[in-house]
């Protein structure tokens, strides 16, 4: 894409490690993408003539495309998540040999949650065993969307090498010269194609009919056009089909999926894909309004900017208070920071997506999450590892701010002129937040050991830099052993983190063996209520408060109400007396100790107590805590500050936990993974036996394509109704599955402890063919022998 748009002068290759977007040494060594990289280019290239007329197809007008290349490996799911959060459209690249893989389903489900319009590009059709038809059927069965086949592969003479594509939208065949750079494309209209390859000619007419018919099911407008053409799908204009495809995918529901074909290693099919990006994917103004929260309100950004959200400014010192609308009108720009990178030459780079207005060079940016102001001294437009200085970043664009000290992934940055750096914009504008980015919980743990005590501070600082870059890494210090624990999304994830720590940041530390995060749970019936009065000085101030707590096992989560809080798998319920007034009708609590303050203080105290269980110091899970606060007995005037209340709640919960431990009512839980293993028929038995006997796992299903995660609200699709051109190389018996042996899928639940290092074991069982993917399912209680072993 970069080569054809004139941005780079040579075509990079993943195998040679010469690509533009995979520029990290670790990426080049392994031949995979590890971190997402952003590139901006124009398609068609700007120098190829000026803007075309309004009536011309969209792909003839130069568009600015912000492209983000994301990883495909399961360990780097967070990179995909944070990129999806800020993008307007996506191209899903499938391997024509492997088809729809397990990780594809996972990312597809994430794109569904953000309602991202998508198109699919089936790549690697030049490889042996490539099966376009099978891949199309899998798109229907596994991604739960209707595949609209826009291009079909052109095999020379029907059985030869992959040479080009038949374009069902424009009714033409595109042929690429063998071994070229892909810039010279021969285009054949239907009549020329009939003489060149009659088989493809017949198939293309069939493909056009199937495309129009499937679009008519989703789009009324095209149905009218089709009826006006007397049901002749060949007579339907190409532009009408493009517009219809665009209308069908703009809502991001994924119910219709346009499919394109090619082989990027042979430079086939890339330019038509870029045309499709211009034609079908939305520009920033066509996306739904970004969601925001401001104060306690939720709404959309445009409602706020148009003054439809009722916000009341705080009373100002002057006589005249500014109106809410005039305050909003002063917002110059609003952006979301979605990625932070430490560049060895340029320092810290914060990638942002601007949602309204524009961010100008040297403007003061208010960070609404951290409540600090920072200056955007340099603005850059990134070209992977290279950068161009720019004066501003406009709405809808992706750019980089260099040198911010505090901003992190998911922070909202607001540009507001003449703002007080300490206080920020007037309230409630200083709390304006765009929808943040969800961070998945970590599953793999390893210990980081500094070589000497004097290195500890340095290693901690470097880890803080790493964490700011990649929030899906977590670091915590085990209080008992004093060990620094680094946790992440998988083995490869931690391996890369260690490489960066030692090679890039030159930290003097080693990484120890991986630890599993266990949990503790309450087993028996509830404990009696324990009332504790906390009474001692905190930072020179007297603190005194009381609280009672009891604890019991949790059966099912309760809904979040103002009195119950769901937190890390536990539920905290706060019981207050019916009336907060005494018999004389005087309020027992002062106005500064409002219900929200009281609740926050008590919940924080309980949370602190639940972070370390009484038995082995693991956090508690599936516990229900009842906190009872009675102002008549537990409130001691000014001494009962929020800090004292927190401490009282913590001590009360700890006392209840201690009693449960005394009654042998505390059990251990371990993380259990949902594992999907792909293997061929021959090694199925060995794997199932290994999982159920040696690893204490439960096999849930064999070869069941309906993955729980991707089973969306969309109805199941009858794959026999889906049109796909025949695969020339598929054998008649295994028509649905080309390639050696039948592919099978095993879905199982296995304890995480047994999955550490499983990849090597699986490869030896399957002769290197097996792959697996796992996600945290839940925590389960350890059985007798496993508990003993632990």
Automatic annotation (TrEMBL):
<feature type="binding site">
    <location>
        <begin position="123"/>
        <end position="126"/>
    </location>
    <ligand>
        <name>GTP</name>
    </ligand>
</feature>
<dbReference type="InterPro" id="IPR014721">
    <property type="entry name" value="Ribsml_uS5_D2-typ_fold_subgr"/>
</dbReference>
<dbReference type="GO" id="GO:0005525">
    <property type="term" value="F:GTP binding"/>
</dbReference>
<dbReference type="GO" id="GO:0032790">
    <property type="term" value="P:ribosome disassembly"/>
</dbReference>
<keyword id="KW-0496">Mitochondrion</keyword>
<dbReference type="InterPro" id="IPR009022">
    <property type="entry name" value="EFG_III"/>
</dbReference>
<protein>
    <recommendedName>
        <fullName>Ribosome-releasing factor 2, mitochondrial</fullName>
    </recommendedName>
</protein>
<keyword id="KW-0648">Protein biosynthesis</keyword>
<dbReference type="GO" id="GO:0032543">
    <property type="term" value="P:mitochondrial translation"/>
</dbReference>
<dbReference type="InterPro" id="IPR020568">
    <property type="entry name" value="Ribosomal_Su5_D2-typ_SF"/>
</dbReference>
<dbReference type="InterPro" id="IPR031157">
    <property type="entry name" value="G_TR_CS"/>
</dbReference>
<dbReference type="InterPro" id="IPR030851">
    <property type="entry name" value="EFG2"/>
</dbReference>
<dbReference type="InterPro" id="IPR000795">
    <property type="entry name" value="T_Tr_GTP-bd_dom"/>
</dbReference>
<keyword id="KW-0342">GTP-binding</keyword>
<feature type="region of interest" description="Disordered">
    <location>
        <begin position="728"/>
        <end position="747"/>
    </location>
</feature>
<keyword id="KW-0547">Nucleotide-binding</keyword>
<feature type="domain" description="Tr-type G">
    <location>
        <begin position="1"/>
        <end position="285"/>
    </location>
</feature>
<dbReference type="Pfam" id="PF14492">
    <property type="entry name" value="EFG_III"/>
</dbReference>
<dbReference type="Pfam" id="PF00679">
    <property type="entry name" value="EFG_C"/>
</dbReference>
<dbReference type="InterPro" id="IPR000640">
    <property type="entry name" value="EFG_V-like"/>
</dbReference>
<dbReference type="InterPro" id="IPR027417">
    <property type="entry name" value="P-loop_NTPase"/>
</dbReference>
<dbReference type="InterPro" id="IPR035649">
    <property type="entry name" value="EFG_V"/>
</dbReference>
<dbReference type="InterPro" id="IPR041095">
    <property type="entry name" value="EFG_II"/>
</dbReference>
<comment type="function">
    <text>Catalyzes the GTP-dependent ribosomal translocation step during translation elongation. During this step, the ribosome changes from the pre-translocational (PRE) to the post-translocational (POST) state as the newly formed A-site-bound peptidyl-tRNA and P-site-bound deacylated tRNA move to the P and E sites, respectively. Catalyzes the coordinated movement of the two tRNA molecules, the mRNA and conformational changes in the ribosome.</text>
</comment>
<dbReference type="InterPro" id="IPR009000">
    <property type="entry name" value="Transl_B-barrel_sf"/>
</dbReference>
<dbReference type="InterPro" id="IPR005225">
    <property type="entry name" value="Small_GTP-bd"/>
</dbReference>
<dbReference type="InterPro" id="IPR035647">
    <property type="entry name" value="EFG_III/V"/>
</dbReference>
<comment type="function">
    <text>Mitochondrial GTPase that mediates the disassembly of ribosomes from messenger RNA at the termination of mitochondrial protein biosynthesis. Not involved in the GTP-dependent ribosomal translocation step during translation elongation.</text>
</comment>
<dbReference type="GO" id="GO:0005759">
    <property type="term" value="C:mitochondrial matrix"/>
</dbReference>
<dbReference type="InterPro" id="IPR053905">
    <property type="entry name" value="EF-G-like_DII"/>
</dbReference>
<dbReference type="Pfam" id="PF00009">
    <property type="entry name" value="GTP_EFTU"/>
</dbReference>
<dbReference type="Pfam" id="PF22042">
    <property type="entry name" value="EF-G_D2"/>
</dbReference>
<comment type="similarity">
    <text>Belongs to the TRAFAC class translation factor GTPase superfamily. Classic translation factor GTPase family. EF-G/EF-2 subfamily.</text>
</comment>
<dbReference type="GO" id="GO:0003924">
    <property type="term" value="F:GTPase activity"/>
</dbReference>
<feature type="binding site">
    <location>
        <begin position="69"/>
        <end position="73"/>
    </location>
    <ligand>
        <name>GTP</name>
    </ligand>
</feature>
